[in-house]
Every structure is written in C-alpha cells, then in structure tokens.
Amino acid sequence: MDKRNFLARIILAFAFFLIVFVSSVSGNVNPPSFPSCLNPQGTVKASYNSGTHGVPGDATSYQGSDTVYSVSDNTLIQCLCTDSGEGIQTNWWKASSLTSQEVESLKTQGWVFIPDGSAWGLENTSYLAKNSKYACRGAGGAGEVLGLAATGNIKLIYTLIFIGLLSMMFGHLLKSRGSK
User: Fold this and answer.
1) What pLDDT band is residue 36 in, cutting at 50, 70 and 90?
2) Annotated domain spans of the chain
3) Can you tell me whether residue 127 is helix, strand or coil?
4) Are 111 and 126 a contacting pair, CB within 8 Å?
5) 98-101-107-112 Cα dihedral, nearest 10 degrees
6) Rounded to 5 degrees, what are φ and ψ at 113?
7) Across the chain, where does the E strand assignment appear?
8) Which residue in 109, 143, 120, 138 sits closest to 36, CA to CA?
9) Is the distance from CB of 33 to CB of 6 less than 8 angstroms?
10) What distance in Å separates the CA atoms of residue 79 and residue 99, rounded to the nearest whole number?
C-alpha cells in the first residue's frame, strides 16, 4: 500500500508540473531580434543631432542626439545619445498582431505598451517598447552595452524544480526500501 501511495504522489507531482509548465509557456511570445545601437542597422527614419528627447516609460526629458532606424515592417530601434554620454536604446515593435494576453505577458518582461505610436513619430497603431542602456562615445550610437534584457528563463526554473521534486521522491523511495 505504501508503494502505491508513493507512486500516486509521483504521478500527481508530474501531472502538476505538466499543467503549470504548459500553461505558463502557452502564453509566451518571443519578441523579434533587434540590432544594437552599437552597430545600428536598417534605414534611417528620423535623425536629430541635438534637442530634447523622450523615452517611453520614462518621464525624464533628455538632451542629445537621437536616431530612429526602421529595421523591418514591424520593428524599429531608437538610439538616443545624451549630452552626458548616457545612451538609451529603445526597441519598438508593432503590437497590432498580438493578443491582449501576449501583450500582458510581454509587459511583465519589461515591455511598455504604447497605444498610439503617432505621439512618438511612428504609425498610428499600437507598439511595445523596451529600453536598454549603453555608453555613448559621441553621436550616432557607438558605445558599449551596460546591461542585457531578461530572456525569460522560466522553463529552466520549472525544470530544476521538477528535477528537485523527483530527486526528493526517489530518495524517499530508496529510504523506505532500505528500512524494510
């Protein structure tokens, strides 16, 4: 009876893991890849050598140069290099093809939802924007990346938790067999 109880626990833990894992992964959407402002690519959509500029999700106004590159039909990068040498790269992604669940999932990963891009000089459609910092060495975006974005390692975390649970159950099984 003890073996059946133990096997039932293993099956229940495995089923729970699958349910949690599948439900968490099903809402995930992978953002497109963006080039770095260290080596910007695409066609120049707008370029300003000086002036006051804004960054989505940040109420601060910045003085410096700003260049926007159209990378694809759905993606753009904005390379802001402030007068103080601080660089801010904004990745812009058209959100019109995403579901509200996907948008909410991306917001938890640091993306900012922009309902109307025309306020930022973009098309009149919704966008997601994500900022990262780099150190400028003059105008145009040369510098070094100071931080990397989170890449969503939830699969690894769930896998390690599952392996830990299985190891504990296996240890319990070995202990119960040894005590007989």
Assistant:
1) very high
2) 2-25+157-178, 31-149
3) strand
4) no
5) 40
6) -85, 125
7) 43-48, 52-55, 58-70, 75-82, 86-94, 112-114, 127-136, 143-145
8) 143
9) no
10) 28
Q: Which residues pair with 69 in a beta bridge?
A: 44, 77
Rounded-to-integer distance, Cα 99 and Cα 135, Å: 35
- Rg, C-alpha atoms of the chain: 24
State pLDDT tens for residues 54-91: 999 999 999 999 999 999 999 999 999 999 999 999 99
Characterize the bridge pairing of strands 52-55 and 58-70.
antiparallel
DSSP symbols for 78-110 = EEEEETTSEEEEEEEEE-TTS-HHHHHHHHTTT
Digit-coded pLDDT (tens) for 99-151: 999 999 999 999 999 999 999 999 999 999 999 998 786 544 444 444 445 55
- In this predicted structure, what is the pLDDT of residue 164? 87
